[in-house]
Design goal:
The protein is an alpha/beta fold. It is elongated, with a radius of gyration of 25 Å. The longest helix is centred in the last third of the chain and has 33 residues. Bound molecules: uridine-5'-diphosphate (UDP) and magnesium ion (MG). Uridine-5'-diphosphate binds next to β1 and α3.
């Protein structure tokens, strides 16, 4: 079993040597066949120079270098693209994760498809990091239905086929387990060691929490409704239009039965607004339905994920592309 360790590095020149040494120490004894994939995320310090030096001495090290800083998620995505391993491990490059935990993760990967680290005794400031992270983890677990204590922990192990199926956007690497759950993979978590950052600076501040919540909305919507957007927008639209319609009926009766003036009443505005908003929502849902079809049919993407096929009869790709399998996920 080949193992790839993917590490994103952005201005981590003080940590590279130590990181490399600790990774070697942890892997040389316990993992016979491994490779290191270091991704330099457009560092402006000496990070890439140091990686280059290491690469010259070690053919097990693959070095990727971004033209500019594309972010941690992009760095993971690039690492996944180039990783050859049957199992892919991700971890931070600032030595806050401990390479000694890698064998523990690997021990569970046969039974599970994803093993996620849990920084139970996390060594970061409480107010600015741990508290927002606790709230975010609680929220993500509730919303996605994948109960992990620590979504933000980079130290995770994935079976190759799991990550090769997932495309990453924005800052979504922390949501891989949630997306993978949709594919039906088995996930577990184990406690891992966490160290304080000794050298270099953290690249994130408190504003990340807000971005995580926005990403959560995207993930929830895509997982729940990406093949049936009208089911999401439709009910809201119908409810809004119906309410607007009833309000307008009431006002019409008031005018014609009782002869009351309705021109200056706020209720009239509300009724009209609700009707228009409702129509917009339904229109948006219908546009969404068209986009889903274009997305799946133009790229011949099926709307299901197979585990295996027994008694295989060759399937024509054009049959797969019609998406006639209903709206089941
Ligand atoms: N990182 C990166 N690109 C970025 C920001 C961070 O590759 O734009 C890397 C960084 O070098 C480190 C890891 O992602 O290896 C985690 O970053 P950091 O330690 O700053 O995050 P924190 O531990 O404070 O959440
Ligand atoms: Mg860190």
């Amino acid at each position: 079993m080949k193992v790839s360790v993917v590490v994103p590095l952005y201005n981590e020149e003080e940590n590279i040597q130590d990181l490399y040494a600790k990774l070697k120490q942890a892997l040389d004894t316990s993992v016979p066949d491994y490779e290191l994939v270091f991704v330099d995320d457009g560092s402006t310090d000496g990070t890439m120079g140091l990686i280059e030096q290491l690469q010259k001495q070690d053919s097990r090290l693959i070095a990727l270098s971004f033209r500019r800083n594309f972010g941690q998620t992009a760095a993971f995505a690039a690492g996944f693209d180039y990783a050859q391993g049957d199992v892919v491990i991700t971890m931070d490059g600032d030595l806050q994760n401990d390479p000694q935990d890698i064998p523990k993760l690997l021990g569970l990967i046969g039974e599970y498809d994803i093993v996620s680290g849990w920084r139970r005794r996390r060594q970061d400031p409480f107010i600015s990091r741990r508290l927002p992270s606790m709230m975010a983890n609680w929220l993500i677990s509730r919303v996605t239905g994948v109960p992990l204590h620590d979504y933000g922990c980079s130290l995770k192990a994935y079976r190759r086929d799991v990550i090769k199926n997932i495309s990453l956007y924005g800052e979504m690497h922390r949501f891989i387990p949630a997306v993978a759950k949709w594919y039906g993979v088995k996930i577990t978590e184990i406690e891992t060691t966490h160290h304080p950052r000794l050298r270099g600076k953290s690249k994130y501040g408190i504003s990340r929490t807000i971005r995580v919540v926005l990403d959560l909305i995207t993930v929830k919507f895509l997982l729940g409704f990406s093949t049936k957007p009208l089911q999401f927008f439709g009910p809201v639209g119908l409810l809004s239009s119906m309410t607007g319609f009833l309000i307008s009926c009431y006002l019409t009766l008031d005018k014609f039965l009782y002869g009351r003036d309705i021109g200056g009443r706020p209720l009239l505005l509300l009724g009209v607004l609700l009707i228009i908003v409702g129509v917009q929502f339904i229109g948006m849902g219908l546009l969404g339905e068209m986009m889903v079809r274009i997305y799946h049919e133009s790229q011949k993407k099926p709307i299901y994920v197979l585990r295996q096929v027994l008694g295989h009869t060759p399937v024509r790709r054009e049959d797969l592309s019609t998406g006639r399998a209903g709206d089941k996920q």
